[in-house]
Amino acid sequence: MTSSNPILAVKGLSHTYGHGATAHRAIAQVDFELMTGQAISVVGPSGAGKTTLLRCLAGLQTPTGGSVEIEGVPVTRVPSSIGVVFQDYSRSLMPWLSVKRNVEFPLRGHGLDKREVQQRAMDALALVGLTAAADRHPRQLSGGMQQRVAIARAVAVQPRILIMDEPFASVDAQTRAELEDLTLSVRRRTDTSVVLVTHDIDESVYLADSVLVLSGNPSRVVDQLPVELGYPRDQLTTKRQENYLDVRSKVYEMIHPHRMTQP
Amino acid sequence: MNLNQGLRTLLRGLGGVAVLCLLIQLLAVIGPARWEIPNLRQLADEVYHFVMSDPHFVGALLHTMKTVVLSLLVALVAGVVIGIPLGLSSVLYRTLTLPVELLRPVPAIALIPVMILALGQGQSMEVAVTALAAWWPILFNALYGARGVEPLTLQTARVFGLGRRQTTLRVVLPATLPMIVTGLRVAAPLALIVAVGAEYLATAGQGLGGVLIQATASGNLQVLWAAAVVTGLLGLVIGALVWVVGRVVCPWSTEW
Amino acid sequence: MVGAVTDPMTTQAVRWRKWMSGPRAWLRSLAGVPVVVVGLLIWQWQTTRHPVFFLPPPLVIARRLKTDWLSGPAHSLFLSHEGLTAIVQTFQTALIGWAIAAALGIIVGSVLGVRPSLAAFAAPPLLLLRSVPPIAVIPIAIVILGLGDSMRTAVVVAGCLWPILLNAVAAVSGVDQVLRDVAALNHLNPIQTFVRVLVPAASPKLFAGLRVALALAIVLSVGAGMFAGSGGLGGRLLTFQNNFDVPGLWATITVLAVLGAIVNWLLLLVERSALRWNIQGETL
Fold first, then answer.
1. Residue A222 to chain C, least CA–CA distance (Å)
2. Does residue A218 have a cis peptide bond before it, meaning omega lies within 30 degrees of 0?
3. CA A120 to CA A118: how far, in whole Å?
């Protein structure tokens, strides 16, 4: 199912903001590869340059060093094969558009006719279970529903890579569990590759096929851990497996290396 | 903001002003002859003459400033004393909202003729009209500010045993201050406009308005351009004063 | 940007305002009717007993309203000919001047808002320009343009430009960076970003500036008319003042207040409709 060539290749990525005395190095060196149809989660302490990494991946920023390649093509501007889900859904959805129009928004530039645009949008909404809310406005929905709209919008263009920036950090724990399972289901049905940035260690293992652990400021790759948990996954049984607990504690130790319980 | 950034902002600002000066020079040359736009040199000359030649100029300036300051004080007191209770009590607000909304659209400028007939041409008329115009923004800002005080803060005050008057003085008033100062910042330029307008319309010839009337009567465009610049500078000074007042009274505010 | 209409409100204030502006709000504000009626009665009673020169009883004013303003034929809303002419003169210049200022202010303000570096350049000269009160522009306009409609329109434009421009800068530059990222991620070119994202996102603040400017436009149009009696409602005010005609003055003031309120309310309707999606209630 996976081809031998990585769909996403990050080589020697580094990024420094500013020049001279006030320069701030956000990323020192990051290398990793993502195979087609796989999911990689990027986890690290706060301030570890995760957002900078994401912006470089999405073409919103040109890294000061190294390169990002999608399907072998270097990323110089925003590539057309990605979808992005932001952490702050209430700020990323256009409040003056209905849910349906928000999901249609990215489809308009792709040369599809009107009926197809609407159909794809409704399909995406169905994927996230929000067909009934199509004509409401984002601010009339709860946080979890708004984030589902954001996910629908991101997958409506049928992207090759889905980039998610701490997508569930702003919702409560129960909604987070639902959204995690939704992400797994969307992945299964669309066979999209996923890059998930998160600070939640449990989530990073639960949702991914490998976990990229970043050090603190400036970012370096501490390790890339494979996650061999198989599919389908669910919140109860998966999180009890030896494998899961094993990877999880390894990641935890890498991020909090000096944390020891008091004697 | 470190020195580097501060310096860059200053340079940018100066650059902008320089562009403005260039524009004025350009307009002086290519602008319509009828408009008699002065170039910078002429403008500086005229402003100088305007300020120096009229022996009453300083007196006129002080007259206008006095009117503005007095009326702002009146407006401030009236606006806060009426606005805060209106904001705190929904009963008061409900009963008074209709009359307030009926009175609000009356523009102060339109009241100048009545005021002249009622109070004569003197400074008391000017202060009255200007205060009437300036108090609306302060009133509404005090109202919304008082209403916007977090109920949690009020409850905390109650828990600490503060009575109604104490709560208003020690909790609501400081919390509303930033909004009141914003209202003052809107009211100040308004006060300048109405004060000069009242002076202009009254035939007593006092204040900057009086000076403007003389300049208009002479039809001398050069003098009028200079007058505009001087009034603008006065507006700047008033704005700066209000900013300072705001900083002193509400140093914690992040609104400006 | 300094000088723009800001609206810092807590959730409590927002909730309260929603309550006050909800569908039954007009019912609640009817509580003010008895206050108004009582006020009018006291006014009528006191001024009849102790006549005050500059404040005639409401009935006298009402009578003047009828004779001066409402004595016309039905097809022109009962407005008398001179009344209609004066109203049209004033409001026409106010609205045209406001529209010109709106177009200029929004365009320039948006350009500045999109490029913050430009805005940093422009801030001081704008501060200088906008500190010149419209009152100082009136004499210049009179000497250059004479005493007619064009003078009044010019004054209105000069006065209204600044609030609209400043609010446009604040509104456009205040558009959430996340929305701009979304636009960039969807490959929108600068014009598309402007039209489809920046303008709708900036519209609450833009409307606030437009409403402030509209009230200012009316005031300036009347004011410019009062100086040297150049027509419209302002001109009539000046005439009445010179004739010591107090009831006439008050009748004119009433007309001005009513019409100003109506125009403002119309704009508010447009705004409410355009900003229906703005459930957090940023309208001021």
1. 29
2. yes
3. 6
Chains A & C: contacts with CB separation below 8 Å: 51
Over residues A18-54, the pLDDT tens digits come to 777 778 888 888 899 999 889 999 998 776 688 888 8
Q: Which of A96, B73, B167 is nearest to C198 (CA)?
A: A96
- In angstroms, the separation between the Cα of residue B235 and the nearest Cα of chain C is 5
Nearest by CB: C178 against A80, A88, A97: A88
Domain range list for chain A? 1-81+193-263
User: Tens of pLDDT along C3-32?
Assistant: 444 444 444 455 555 555 555 556 666 677
State the ipTM, two decimals. Answer: 0.79
- The whole-angstrom separation of Cα A226 and Cα A208 is 9
What average pLDDT does chain A have?
87
User: How far apart are the CA of B107 and the nearest CA of chain C, in angstroms?
Assistant: 6
Q: Which residues of C touch A95 (CB under 8 A)?
A: 201, 277-279
pLDDT at C18: 57
Q: Scanning every residue of chain B, which has its alpha carbon at the shortest distance from the alpha carbon of C256?
A: B106
Domains of chain C: 84-284 (1.10.3720.10)
- B-C contacts at Cβ under 8 angstroms: 195
DSSP symbol at B168: I
8 Å CB contact of C181 and A96 = no
Mutate to test the interface with A, among C180, C196, C277 (most CBs of A within 10 A): C277
Q: Are A124 and A155 in contact (CB under 8 A)?
A: yes
Interface chains of chain C (3 or more CB pairs under 8 Å): A, B
Which residue positions in chain C have pLDDT lower than 50? 1-12, 281-284
List the structure tokens of C185: 């991620």
Q: For residues B78 and B142, is the Cβ–Cβ distance under 8 A? A: no
The 10 Å Cβ neighbour count of residue A51 is: 15
Tell me which fold the domain A1-81+193-263 belongs to: Rossmann fold (3.40.50)
For C260, name the nearest residue in chain B, comparing CA atoms only. Answer: B105
